[in-house]
Amino acid sequence: MTAPFKRILLKLSGEVLMGEGGLAIDPLVTARVAEEIAGVRAQGYELCVVVGGGNIFRGLSAAAKGIERATADYMGMLATVMNALAVQNALEQIGVDTRVQSAIPMASVCEPFIRRRAERHLEKGRVVIFAAGVGSPFFTTDSGAALRAAEMKCDALFKGTSVDGVYDADPKKVPGAKRYQTVSFNRVLSDDLKVMDASAVALCRDNDIPIVVFNIREHGNFAAVLAGEGVSTIVQ
Ligand code: UDP
Known about the structure:
By secondary structure, this protein is an alpha/beta fold. The chain has helices spanning 27-42, 59-64, 69-93, 115-123, 141-151, 185-190, 198-206, 221-226; strands at residues 7-12, 46-51, 98-102, 111-112, 127-131, 156-161, 182-183, 211-215, 232-235. It has a 9-stranded mixed β-sheet with strand order 4-3-5-2-1-6-8-9-7, with helices on both faces. The longest helix has 25 residues, at 69-93. The relative contact order is 0.17. The structure holds uridine-5'-diphosphate (UDP). Uridine-5'-diphosphate (UDP) is lined by residues 13-15, 52-54, 58-60, 72-73, 76-77, 79-80, 133-134, 136-137, 139-144.
């Protein structure tokens, strides 16, 4: 899988920054994720990162408890900015040059999203972390990841989660559930397989961007999957 990929986008769910003790952003866990990113960056890949916010705030759950949906979603987007800063901090502590760009401008916190500027950062070897999803309510950071992957002409979207791929049924509930090695975009959509939300999957399909689902919590797995050795599911 190595050869054709030069520029990749890593989507991190907010939950991968959580620790055992229920800390929304666990510094040790975040440092481990940063090491995985640094290892891949050191191999010469150009790296974009999109972070979620579900470890802190999810619009849909808050809306169910009475907060207006659009307001709740803006709160969720702000949560992704906190996660982006945490990932940036962890990367810079180990010497990786980064920039955070937010879809919601926040001048004293980070850069606004400017595609050409992000392009320049990548050329200079910086890891660009995109925050605040697409910048609009009623979307998710999965859609933000697919959109940025298309805009930045990424060769693949890597979805780093705490499971090792896509299964034909929930492996926690169905004994003998089978992990796909590869699966088509259309199968993911027709069978409603839990990969990313449907609009994100469709955007990747329409722009020929494969999605690689893998466990980022397993040490060395990000680099291994890129080298064609680790455990993952490729949606293509
Ligand atoms: N969100 C949004 N628009 C976006 C991206 C995110 O409204 O473009 C909000 C939404 O409320 C979502 C929350 O931000 O629940 C956190 O993002 P997400 O649930 O995608 O995070 P993840 O599940 O990846 O941790």
